[in-house]
Amino acid sequence: MSILSFTRAWSSLQEQTTINVILPNEIPANHKLQVLWLLHGLGDNGSGWLRKTNLEVLDKYTNLAIVTPEMNRSFYTNMANGLPYWDYLTREVIPEMRKLLPLSSDPRDNFVGGVSMGGFGAFKLAFTHPDWFSAVISISSVVNLTVLPKLMPDYDNIFAGPAPKRYLEELAKNAPQAALHRLRIYDCIGDQDFMKHDNDRFVDYLQNELVLNVAYVTKTGNHDWLYWQQVLPDILHWLLGIRLSDGKPLTSFE
Question: Coiled-coil segments, which residues (predicted)?
Answer without folding.
Answer: none
